[in-house]
């Protein structure tokens, strides 16, 4: 719909961070990539779709922040003294940051679609999408929801086992 397009209309490049397994450093890489791009003068957002292990709010020391509503949807949490990195994560929607998320596919998929369509990102040079481990429904939902927006590409994080 037109409203969906509006929230990502100001985002120039979308980059997925993926891996086939957990514990390889996707969230760390997503965070460091965002910080490096910010250091280079870019406007950056991170969409944390790791619904069962949302670690980026803690990595960026904003785990106690709350998400607010505006006319065009959710307002992401802005990170740092200069508020230069926009972040959306399920970690902001839980009562306690360590609460477990135990959901079946349809509910996870609906939230991912909502994250893609209902977050008011504003003007960004890069939106980095941190995905959960594996190759599950969440990945398919994320890619399908982002398909109309011309992904810049993906970074595949692996380890040499």
From TrEMBL:
<dbReference type="GO" id="GO:0005524">
    <property type="term" value="F:ATP binding"/>
</dbReference>
<keyword id="KW-0547">Nucleotide-binding</keyword>
<keyword id="KW-0004">4Fe-4S</keyword>
<keyword id="KW-0067">ATP-binding</keyword>
<keyword id="KW-0408">Iron</keyword>
<dbReference type="GO" id="GO:0016226">
    <property type="term" value="P:iron-sulfur cluster assembly"/>
</dbReference>
<dbReference type="Pfam" id="PF10609">
    <property type="entry name" value="ParA"/>
</dbReference>
<dbReference type="GO" id="GO:0046872">
    <property type="term" value="F:metal ion binding"/>
</dbReference>
<dbReference type="InterPro" id="IPR000808">
    <property type="entry name" value="Mrp-like_CS"/>
</dbReference>
<keyword id="KW-0479">Metal-binding</keyword>
<dbReference type="GO" id="GO:0051539">
    <property type="term" value="F:4 iron, 4 sulfur cluster binding"/>
</dbReference>
<dbReference type="InterPro" id="IPR019591">
    <property type="entry name" value="Mrp/NBP35_ATP-bd"/>
</dbReference>
<dbReference type="InterPro" id="IPR033756">
    <property type="entry name" value="YlxH/NBP35"/>
</dbReference>
<dbReference type="InterPro" id="IPR027417">
    <property type="entry name" value="P-loop_NTPase"/>
</dbReference>
<protein>
    <submittedName>
        <fullName>NUBP2 factor</fullName>
    </submittedName>
</protein>
<keyword id="KW-0411">Iron-sulfur</keyword>
<dbReference type="GO" id="GO:0005829">
    <property type="term" value="C:cytosol"/>
</dbReference>
<dbReference type="GO" id="GO:0140663">
    <property type="term" value="F:ATP-dependent FeS chaperone activity"/>
</dbReference>
């Amino acid at each position: 719909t037109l409203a969906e397009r509006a929230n990502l209309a100001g985002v120039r490049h979308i980059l997925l961070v993926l891996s086939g397994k957990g514990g390889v450093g996707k969230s760390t890489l997503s965070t460091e990539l965002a910080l490096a791009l910010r250091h280079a003068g870019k406007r950056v957002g991170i969409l944390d779709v790791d619904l069962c292990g949302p670690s980026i709010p803690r990595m960026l020391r904003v785990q106690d922040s709350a998400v607010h509503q505006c006319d065009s949807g959710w307002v992401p949490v802005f990170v740092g003294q200069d508020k230069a990195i926009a972040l959306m994560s399920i970690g902001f929607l839980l009562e306690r940051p360590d609460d477990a998320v135990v959901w079946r596919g349809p509910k996870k998929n609906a939230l991912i679609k909502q994250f893609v369509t209902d977050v008011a990102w504003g003007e960004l040079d890069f939106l980095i999408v941190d995905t959960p481990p594996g190759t599950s429904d969440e990945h398919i939902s994320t890619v399908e929801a982002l398909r109309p927006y011309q992904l810049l590409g993906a970074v595949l994080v692996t380890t040499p086992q």
